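Please describe our next protein:
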Amino acid sequence: MAKGTTPRARLDFTRRCPLSQRYNIPMHTRFRSQRVEAIVLRHADWGEADRLLWLFTRELGKLRVVAKGVRKPRSRKAGHLEPFTRASLQLAWGREMYIVTQAEAINPNMVLRDDLVRIGYAAYVVELLDRFTYEEGEHQALYRLLADTLDRLNDEPDPAFAVRYYEVRLLDQVGFRPQLQQCIRCEKKIQPEDQYFSAELGGIVCPKCGAGYPGARPITLPALKILRHFQRSSYAEARRLHLSGTVDHELENLMGHFLTYLLERGLNTPAFLRRVRRETPEDF
């Protein structure tokens, strides 16, 4: 991020940039045919039998493509192009965008798709990536983070842990890493006590500087320790920690506030996720 700009100013490009420009790569880098590994972010019906797909690919970044005939009952590609599916795709360039000519699922994440709570978490993960990524070109670290997170949501008993880790690492990858080691106002080292968090300033504010500071929210020491551990640790190392329900709830609210501030608008999926969790309290 350029010096002197705010995180939100950087995101203004997204609203100015046409949809086709955001999702399709420049002409000089297009290939007539290319095989990619991709995760289906979402889709929408197109015409009588086709479907538009929004993909995040390992090789080309984010793309909008069309899957022709995929809504026909006998389509062989349909089951390989569902949301949250990781697939190997053959793409051919049409007049305006790539067309999917072959599709083979690598990981359909079937467990995830049969559970409303896990679907809610997966939709949240995908929405975050979709909102924060608008530049073209590959981003393999971000692709790997998304793929690993969807796998964890599919396989692990505690999906919330994987999502909290994802939020922190996503901010690292897109250039909005919060300052958690020192007070962002006085620059003094953070002491082992409850602190404040300022979305506007982008990090931790000590009790002396944070008390009464507009918009600063309290953050408990256990929650701060989790965030700092997530910033510096691999997932395998982070998984040794215990994330209590109380701290998870605190971090969910805090990160939701920070992400909404950066995006300058609310996310769609958290409301759905809260609703389905209320309806299935015995499992989550």
Q: What stands out?
A: The mean pLDDT is 87.
